[in-house]
Amino acid sequence: MRGLLIGRFQPFHLGHLAVVREIRSSRPDAPLLVGIGSAEESFTWQNPFTAGERFEMIQRALAEAKVGGVEVVPIADIQRHALWVRYLEGLLPPFDRVYTNNPLTRLLFERAGYTVELPKLVDRRRYEGVRIRERIAAGRGWAELLPPAVARYLGSVDASSRLRILRAGGARPTRGRAR
Amino acid sequence: MRGLLIGRFQPFHLGHLAVVREIRSSRPDAPLLVGIGSAEESFTWQNPFTAGERFEMIQRALAEAKVGGVEVVPIADIQRHALWVRYLEGLLPPFDRVYTNNPLTRLLFERAGYTVELPKLVDRRRYEGVRIRERIAAGRGWAELLPPAVARYLGSVDASSRLRILRAGGARPTRGRAR
Amino acid sequence: MRGLLIGRFQPFHLGHLAVVREIRSSRPDAPLLVGIGSAEESFTWQNPFTAGERFEMIQRALAEAKVGGVEVVPIADIQRHALWVRYLEGLLPPFDRVYTNNPLTRLLFERAGYTVELPKLVDRRRYEGVRIRERIAAGRGWAELLPPAVARYLGSVDASSRLRILRAGGARPTRGRAR
Amino acid sequence: MRGLLIGRFQPFHLGHLAVVREIRSSRPDAPLLVGIGSAEESFTWQNPFTAGERFEMIQRALAEAKVGGVEVVPIADIQRHALWVRYLEGLLPPFDRVYTNNPLTRLLFERAGYTVELPKLVDRRRYEGVRIRERIAAGRGWAELLPPAVARYLGSVDASSRLRILRAGGARPTRGRAR
Amino acid sequence: MRGLLIGRFQPFHLGHLAVVREIRSSRPDAPLLVGIGSAEESFTWQNPFTAGERFEMIQRALAEAKVGGVEVVPIADIQRHALWVRYLEGLLPPFDRVYTNNPLTRLLFERAGYTVELPKLVDRRRYEGVRIRERIAAGRGWAELLPPAVARYLGSVDASSRLRILRAGGARPTRGRAR
Amino acid sequence: MRGLLIGRFQPFHLGHLAVVREIRSSRPDAPLLVGIGSAEESFTWQNPFTAGERFEMIQRALAEAKVGGVEVVPIADIQRHALWVRYLEGLLPPFDRVYTNNPLTRLLFERAGYTVELPKLVDRRRYEGVRIRERIAAGRGWAELLPPAVARYLGSVDASSRLRILRAGGARPTRGRAR
């Protein structure tokens, strides 16, 4: 049966790719659902890229790395944690194993009876979304932290300008610094 | 680039399969996004099956029919039609062609500049979701309207009982006939 | 442990009272949660009375009938049936038995492993919410279908005028007949 | 102080214009707020035009008819009738008189202590939104029911095609007839 | 008539119990509504326990302390403060006195014409939700701050582990530290 | 065609008035839409005044300053930035120029093809909403930062008390300091 890996992938970096690759090779027969969390958010510092852009990053990276057997699904947040696992069960095809290092995600799935596995993180200090966003905004040494296809894609959507604006600016169009 | 086909697939029947097959063979190089509409609804007469169940039906049917190059994505409704195309653009990876016979869907996408194609419908009178649901609820001659894998799957989740209840019952748990 | 009875109680009538009384006397040691469904709705033909008004009706009727051991809780609808039981589990203190004649409610609770009991309905043709609302709107012979305390209460909030307007008028303030 | 007139104005027709004109001339010193109800809806048969399109119709019609002293405000529905008047009080500058022929609107405002006046309707049978929409969809004799500026505007946005599609089609992009 | 006391009760501690007891004994004839605020939230650091768990805590504590005349009601937040009092009026049976030390709650109710009373707080430094949650997470000396029945209940749901995870972890399943 | 200026106007101060005046005099023939952002919020420190109160401030200030050609529209937030421009296009009559100094607003509108102009800010350090709110709460020297009509209006609604409470208090009625 399928496994499930949920992340926000802002952006999808080499740490994510290593986790997907490891899961896929440890269980070649079980397809992997990759859920794009906070899918409804974009153009914020925490979630600069739309779900569609993140979808595209993931697919390009997996194609480049020749990793198959992955299904990508955008997942909008619901704000009620007590319902979250049930919500995912209704949205996704059956899965029986969840990969996460997030303690809350782990708690919620274990309470619902799922097996939770903790994927080994590769050099967590380097491969962390917020640090990579900082680097992209600052324009220093970020490309080598991403799969080449993702780095090219971020260049094509001018991610640097966007991140610079989002880091400097306000949390909402109507709540900026310069107002 | 990708094409997009949106439906509710309640359930996924042979008419749907024929459309997917035709689109895929007419453009073998362009992957097809299959969006499961009204993904947030289930256990109603209009939408008896969860998005996850519909996802499973589609994947089983495509595997059985050996149709590849399809990506399945659940899509929750937003209630604001004027925003719908933009909403899909934010949720999905880039697509440039939309397949639909729904006049409103066509209107909304054409206003946004998309190419809309009308898939040929195979014997529309037979292959219509609501009629098939009627047949499943009544327990008469429905299996032959579905891909075998879907028919078996519906059997395994006892679709007949569920549809019988939903047809008879109310639209909400708190608004039934028998209260 | 507690039992749970959910209804919309528009209005709370003698049929409801009989059900509550029967449940309470069959299990004198188990408190009964009475959930007021569709609590967010009011001033519509389907749901003319606010949750607060229904709360008041129920408490007055139970006090008058000297029925104790009942806890009343307003319950707003969520629109996702697949999450409904889990939603109630998060909202209410533990319960282990559900009383309902609504087939969908029964289906959802049985799938979640609950014991569902079907309360005996007393003269269903007389004691049905919509028929009683019709009678109140028409001003003919409704008081005898309600607990006396409820009949007095409905008089005090001028339920007849309200129901007459709601039956004649539109479903929303901005969607009436006379516009 | 201001008066308030709420409608959906689908479309803004000569009956609406007569009402606005009469209110303005009866109280030349009191500005009139014209609230566009169901502002969040569009591209449905009940609400084919966006709030912005309706805003534009109203302003063009009033400019053409040289009616001043009107402020137009889009008003999204909230679904809770018991909160509706309070919601409007928070959204709009102070008003003390409400013009409506909708019995529910009248009930809700009178319960909140407002003076409600019933504008005289001019030939209600002719000037009713749904009938005018029918005529536009059918392409027969609708222009004379609208202020000339509105008729021209509707021509420029090709209202006939849109209404023909919405009348024939489904209530949602994912719930059409032809699916 | 009833009084109203609203809190989040994360968890229900001896300070809360003292307030309830004082209110009940000062007005033995007026039932007290205890509203569980932020009822839709759980499994966050601010709101670790579901409304149902908090409901259970309150009832066990009141039974143990032999305090009667209390009705417990979960209350989901609405995000619009200007509507909050009206929202409560629609949800709850009539009340005419509000007990609160929250300045905003007081402001909103006084603007709506209610009598607001400030319950005397017992040793506020000890009995504050967030400090008690800190102690539970750290596993040091928390049981004596709670009614014995609540302390036992929290032990039975393993509150310590949950709070330790929530304090360490992220605000959402998809926004944790370890991702 | 119209221009669009969006702000939260908490409160509407002399810096805002200068911007409106400059826009109006630079393009006397183009009406200006003034959108009140975060219209659904009030009674928070960030957004103390209701949309209706802000509407009233703006109209009084413009009448006093004899600035015409301005249409005021409350605009509720949607939380999805990627849809924001489209949302405004559906809500407002046509506009073709946007005035903003908010970098995110600018980014979103430029991506959608609009001309964005940066209004010159008058002494930004003095005329900033949050600083003015601080001064009002502290009761020191705020009146001279506002149009006289706004200063009088804020006096009439006792803005000082409200702001003092909101600065001290919690973000929600159920999440205050004193609980």
Major beta sheet, strand line-up of chain A: 3-2-1-4-5
Number of domains of chain A: 1
Oligomer kind: homohexamer
The largest interface is: A-E, 25 and 21 residues
- Give the integer mean of the pLDDT values of chain A: 93
> Helix share of residues of chain A?
40-55%
Rg of chain A, please? 17 Å
CATH architecture of chain A: 3-Layer(aba) Sandwich
Explain briefly what this protein structure is:
6 copies of one chain form a homohexamer. Chain A is of the alpha/beta class. Chain A is built from 7 helices and 5 strands, in the order E-H-E-H-E-H-E-H-E-H-H-H.
Give the topology.
The structure is a homohexamer of 179-residue chains.
Chain A: E1 2-7, H1 14-26, E2 32-36, H2 51-65, E3 70-74, H3 84-91, E4 95-99, H4 103-111, E5 115-117, H5 129-138, H6 148-156, H7 159-168
Parallel strand pairs in A: 1-2, 1-4, 2-3, 4-5
Helix pairs in contact in A: 2-6, 5-7
